Each structure stands twice: as C-alpha cells, then as structure tokens.
Amino acid sequence: QISQDPITVKVDSNERVSMKNHITDAESPGDISGLEITSTHAAFVAWHADTEEIEVHFDEIQYIGSEPTTTPVEISVFDGTDTSYNSLIFNVIENGQPRWETINRQYVEEGNSGFIELENHVTDTFEDGSPAPASLLMFELMEITPNGIFTASIDETTLLFETIDDDVNGMVTVTVRCSDGVQFSDQEISIEVSPINDAPRIDLSDLENLELQAGVEEVIHFESRISDVDGDVSESFVRVTADDDQYVIYSMLDNTLTLKWDDDGQKTVTMTIEDRYDVNTYEFVVNVVDHKELTASKTNDAMVQVIVGDVMVGDEFEASVNIIDDSPTILSMTTTWQLCNSESGICRLFVNYEHDITMKQDGWTIQPFVSDEIMDMGLDSSSTLIEMADEVKLSMIVTNDANGWEWKWDDGLSWIFTEERIDYSSMSDTDFENEISQLEAQIANLQSQIDALETSGEDTSIFSKEIESAQSELDRACATRSCDNINDAVSGAESDSSSNLMMILAIISIVVILGLLVGLFVTRSGSDQVVGGEVDWSHAVPSMDVQANSMYGGTDALFQQSYAPITPTHQQQPIVAQQAYSQQMYAQPTQVSAPAPVANTMSPPVPASGLPPGWTMEQWNHYGHAYLQQMNGNR
Questions:
Q1: 465 φ, ψ (degrees, to nearest 5)
Q2: What percent of the chain has a predicted confidence (pLDDT) above 70?
Q3: DSSP, residue by residue, 365-420
Q4: Would you list the domain boundaries of the chain?
Q5: Which of 64, 2, 63 is CA-nearest to residue 32?
Q6: How far apart are CA 198 and CA 230, in angstroms?
Q7: Where are the extended beta strands (E) located within 225-264?
C-alpha cells in the first residue's frame, strides 16, 4: 500500500526520503527492504533497499499560477509476486525556504478535537543553506477542504482542529503556510474522523427542491447515495413515508424510489435508514406542478418574444414570434389567438396556431387568422381583416421540451387597433409628394442609425423592424399612385436650378468682361492726349546724360551739341524778357552739326532770373552755354 501523504524535498538537490511511513507490505509488516521499487519519472534517482529510502532530484518546482503545487511521481512496487502502481506526492520547495518534515495523517474520533505542534515539523535555512532558528518562523492557516467536517485554527505555532458535531464523518486537507519573513512554503496535513458505530447515511444533496410534473412517474436510484462508514451497506434497511404515500414506493431489491402524484403542491418525503447500531432520518420536499412556467413579452426580456408590426385597420393581422431562451430545448409550440371588438367585448375568431418547430431558429412570422380552419367555418376573407377598435389577444402559449415537460404561459397580451391606413389615392399632388418625402427621409434616417450600430457591433433589430415598416408603407403608397412623377419633378427642379445658376454666372462674367474692356479703352484714350502747353518729355530730355535726364531740360539735339567756351569780359546783362522764353520753342529743335568737343573750363554766368526751371547747377555747368546761345539767337 502506497500513502498519498505529501513528502517535502528541496529543489535542485538529491534528497533521500524514508518510505517506512509511505509504503507498507501486508506480507512483511514494518519491513519493506525486500520490495523492488522502480519509476520512469525524471525525478526518480534510485531505491535504496538497505535504508528503505527513495532518492529523488527535482530540477524545478511545479506552479499553478504563482503558487507552487505538489508533484506526483508514479512508482511500481514488486514484492516478488505482484506489482502495484501508485504515486508518491512530493512537495518541492526552494533552498532557503522553510522545509517541512512529513506530517502523518491525523485521526480524530467523532465529536473530539486534536492539535499539532507545527514548529516540531519544520526547519529553516538561510540562503547559503545554513540553519536558521525556528523561533523566527510564522504560521498561517491557508485553506481547509472540504468544509463542514472540521473547524481549524492556529495559535502561534500550534494547529488546532475539531469535528463539527458528533455524527459527522469524512476527511479534510488542511493547508498551512510557514514563512521566515523572506520565503515561505506550504504543507498539506490530512485529518480524518474515526467513525464510531455511526448509522448508515443517505446523500440527498441534489434532491433539495426537487420538482416533478403531476401525473408523471419519477424513479430515483439510491444505491450510490447510501454509505456506512462502519458497517456494510447491504445490512442497512430503508423505510419511506410521504404525503399520499400510496404513490411512493421504495424497492430494497435495487434501492430505487418511485414517486408519482396526480395533484400539484408540495409533498414531504421522509426516509429512515438504520443498521444494527444506529438509525438516521432524512426529509426532502418535492414540488409537484402541472407545468413549468413559460414567460412571454413584447420585448426580448422573456423566453418568447411577440412583435406586432405596422398593422392598421383594414389589414390582415400579422405577428412575429421568436424564441429568445431555448434552454428547455422546445420540441413543439402552440399559440392561442382571439380576434375581438374592444368596445363590445365580442370575439368573432378563436384560433389555436401550431408552429412549425423546424423554423424556431429563425422565428415565425404568422397570420393566425388566415387558415383553412377559418375558411371552413363559412366566413369570407374580409372577416379576418382588422376592423376599427378591434383587439387581438394572445391568450396562451404551450410548449413541450425534450424532457417531457409542458411549459405554459397564460398571462395574456393584447393589441388594439384604431388607426386607419392613409388613403393616398384621394390626396392632392402636393400632399402626396410631402408624404413620400417624409417616408423617404424616415427610411434614410433609420438606415443611418442601422449603419452606425453595425459599425459598433450592436443589435440592429429594433430599427430593422421600423425600416421594414416604413419601406412597406412607401411601397404601398407608390403602388397606389406612381412615384415616378415625383422623382421626375425633383430631378427637373434640380435641373432648372442648375440652369438658372449657370445663366447667372454667365451674365456676371459678361458684365465683368465689358467693365474691363471699357476701363482699358478709357485709360488708353486718356494716355494719347497731350494737355496744351506741355511737352512730350520722352523726346526732350538729354539722351546720354544721366544727371541731366530729368523731367525738365532741353532737347536731345540741343544737349548733344558741343560749343566753344565763352570767356566773359564783363558781367552778362540780365535777361529781361524772361516771359518770351517758352518751352514750346524747344519742342522740336533744329539739328546742328556738332563741332569737335571743347573742354569746358568755366561755367557760363547764371541769368539774373536764376536757373531755368527744373535745372540743377551741374546741368548748367555742362549745358548752360548752349542755353544762352539759343536764347541770344532767338532775340
């Protein structure tokens, strides 16, 4: 026999562990040196029979998440005759971590308690491997599984544990963490209750709030539910009583319980099991119902959703039925419909509609009042049309699932119709065009919302129904009266608007061009005219002299002549008839052949009236001689 108690070893080092408390041989109690132990696990190094030790070497610690976990090593044990297989559980820790010694399974009698001095089972080392004092260690209770058998706590270095009550039975695993302030390691300690003459037990955990259908037989097998910790289950005896117990039968041959009730309500079942030592009594409640509750709504917050679209007076009633929650795996469905007048309360049609269950994935779009059954009643087709103030009632939905359960809903939904269809045939053209425009705008708006929802990956069904209704109304309107004229009129209006705009732009362009031409003509005409008394200075300024080439001055011919210098002998008389001088006489001067240039050694005398208008002294030094000769020759 191979124990499952964890064995603590260090990582990355060869560890030899005694197997005296982990492997036993019934044929040689207390002596396992004659056994042959082997393993194919990578951490298994050798079996030392002389010392009854297994040598292992673990290269790493196994982790689950960030927590270290135990490592199983499968071994085979051969006693010379038979070979048995099982796994040794190793708790691999780091060097320098607190190191646990093996703590054997603890046994506690029912209704008793126990304790373990933890510091006697753990040692610690520093990072260099040297021993560290145990007084620095701290202990913490991490987990106890399963619950409901023991309570446990730690008082400094002591683990305390106690059974829940006198009758509890079973085993728990307590996980204790030891820390030296730097590193820690966990140790699992097994604690088991030693039963003392307990009565047999029945596991009723999954029978709480059991629900059965009225009139349907239910058989429950109890063979695997009965246990006896200190006796043979076959020696136990079971008795069962219940409300209306003529429908409750327990068979000792196969340990089965048969339950059946025709009426609904809560039924209490009492079971008594006993052996020669003790007896236990259990109770559980069975909720017997005629059917399971189905839910239906006009929205998608129920198991079945019912949607009525754009139905008005004069239309056939049409509804969409969709299964939102198919967890019961529905195999059939029937809906019950009534067509009534809401004012008088009189109902003229009553229909049970059988749904084609193969269509449940996509849902059903139905007209429940249009059927052969209605026609067989001798009614004409107009009797199924919605009239003013009609009320359609969905009074019941019945389904059956794969487990044989019937699901039923009978809360009732209704729709009242008081709105009539728009009569497009009697509308004026303007009103008809407005209606069409509004429908088209509504469809465009809904489509934009659908596109936005599709982009973000959201549900578009709420708008899909609306856009289908709006498109249906548009199609109906255009079927009543042609919508082509409206589209042509819109296109024509757009064309006229475009033509008017082009004409306006053309007129503006012509006006601008004419304005530019007139401006150019006026400017050119003004530049060709010479105001009386003015000289065209472009032909009257010195041609080669930069300084003399001012807006005033003589002519080209005059300034291009060279004259001999005049040596004055007396002061030149002032020129009195200054007014006789006119710029016009120099407008077209007579060309005179120029003699060889003579150096100008003296400036001519300046007239008493001063320099000619616009002249500088520099100009006078160069061309004053010519000016004076010209003036004297004109006298």
A1: -65, -40
A2: 81
A3: EE-TT-SHHHHHTT--GGGGB--TTEEEEEEEEEEEETTS-EEEE-S-EEEEE--B
A4: 1-93, 201-289, 292-417, 424-487, 534-635
A5: 2
A6: 6
A7: 226-227, 237-242, 248-251, 256-259
Neighbours of 607 (CB within 10 A): 19
Q: How many residues in the chain?
A: 635
Q: What are phi and psi of 199, to 5 degrees?
A: -75, 160
Question: Does position 391 have pLDDT exceeding 80, yes or no?
Answer: yes
Prior bond of 146 cis (ω within 30°)? yes
Neighbours of 285 (CB within 10 A): 13
What does the alpha-carbon distance between residue 7 and residue 70 come to, in Å, rounded to a whole number? 9
H-helix segments, 264-388: 372-376
- Classify strands 210-213 and 279-289 as parallel, antiparallel or unpaired: parallel
d(CA 330, CA 363): 13
Three-state DSSP class for 200? coil
Question: Which CATH architecture group holds 201-289?
Answer: Sandwich (2.60)
DSSP readout, 560-573?
H---PPP--SSPPP
CA 388/CA 390 separation, integer angstroms: 6
**Paired tokens of 282:** 């259990």
92 touches 11 (CB < 8 A): yes
* CATH code matching the domain that covers 1-93, chosen among 2.130.10.10, 3.40.50.1460, 2.60.40.10, 3.40.50.2300: 2.60.40.10
Average pLDDT for 371-375: 68
Check whether 257 has a pLDDT greater than 80: yes
Measure the CA–CA gap between 95 and 128, rounded to whole angstroms: 8
Contacts of 91 (CB under 8 A, 6+ apart): 6, 7, 8, 9, 68, 70, 71, 100, 185, 186, 187, 188
Among the ranges 172-186, 520-534, 586-600, which has the highest mean pLDDT value?
Answer: 172-186
For residues 399 and 321, what is the distance between their CA atoms, to the nearest angstrom?
13
The pLDDT score that the predictor gives to residue 380 is 66
Strands 83-93 and 7-10: parallel
Phi, psi of 390 (to 5 degrees): -70, 150
Identical topology for domains 1-93 and 292-417: yes
- Is the Cβ–Cβ distance between 204 and 284 less than 8 Å? yes
**Residues 6+ positions from 10 with CB-CB distance below 8 Å:** 58, 92, 93, 94, 95, 99
Contacts of 623 (CB under 8 A, 6+ apart): 542, 548, 553, 554, 558, 559
Q: Is the pTM of this model over 0.70?
A: no
- Residue 343 is classified by DSSP as T
Count Cα neighbours of 19 within 13 Å in the Cβ-side half-sphere. 29
Q: Distance (Å, rounded) from C-alpha 535 to C-alpha 531?
A: 9
Question: In this structure, are residues 76 and 37 in contact, taking their beta carbons and an 8 Å threshold?
Answer: yes
Q: How far is CA 487 from CA 215, 443, 506, in A?
A: 68, 16, 29
Q: pLDDT tens digit string along 423-445?
A: 888 888 888 889 899 989 999 99
Q: What is the DSSP letter of 119?
A: G
Average pLDDT over every residue of 161-183 = 90
**Spatial CA neighbour of 193 closest among 282, 105, 281, 252:** 105
The encoded tokens of residue 399 equal 């389904």
Instruction: Summarize pLDDT for 460-491 with one digit per residue, the tens.
Output: 877 887 888 888 888 888 988 888 766 554 44
CATH topology of domain 292-417: Immunoglobulin-like (2.60.40)
